[in-house]
Each structure stands twice: as structure tokens, then as C-alpha cells.
Amino acid sequence: MSVAGGPYVALAVLCQRIDLQPDGTANILGIVDGLAIDDPTEPGTPPLVLNVRALIALRGGSVRGSRILTLRGWFPSGAEGLASDTVVVFSDERPAITLNVPLELELPEIGTYVFDVLCDGELLTAITLDVVQR
Fold it and tell me: What pTM was computed for the model?
């Protein structure tokens, strides 16, 4: 896969909701790029669980055929988090794909959570979520 030939990232965000419209368009609601939480290391503080959606839109460029799209998460400490693979197909009839991935994230650390978006093992982009202490 060549960077010059695609696939290209059209959109990669975390959001609260996606409303699909009858005309085929979508409204993205509540883009989430950061939040403030209570100190998760204090005794008695329950772990915060955040339900969001990862919205990833790719344009195939000259790429055709099946590809493995991976979403891989990293905690602020550098420890690896969630990872999921999805097979996507770029064709002349459908040269673009959009994935709407529900995520249930436990946020036990303060810092920047990173979600790598890879195609066939090559990094395309990263989505970040900055978690700060209130």
C-alpha cells in the first residue's frame, strides 16, 4: 500500500452520537476530544466508563480489494488497550468506507488516550482523547 495511492483519511473522530438521515447523510453530534474527571486514583472513586463512537471515514484512492482496518487503543501510561480488526473492501462501485464503531472506554488514568487507525498494519492516523483532572 502506498501513501500516495491511498487509502486517505477523510474523518476520524470520537463522538457521542451519529444520526443517519433519510437522504443518506449523517449528522455527527458531540465530538469528544477531551474531558475533565475526578482523580481516578483516589480511594472510593469508581472508574469512569465513557460510551462513545469512533467514526472513521476512508477514501480508497487507487486502493481496491479487501483490507484489514485496525483500531488500537493506548493508555496514557503507554500500555496497550483495546484493539479491533474489521475487514473492509474498496471497489470501483464503493471506493469509500465509513465505520461507526461503538466503544465503551474505562478511563483509569489522567492523560492522553490514543487510538491508532491502521490499514493492513500501516498507521493512517490517530484519534486522541485528553483526560484531565477536575
Answer: 0.89
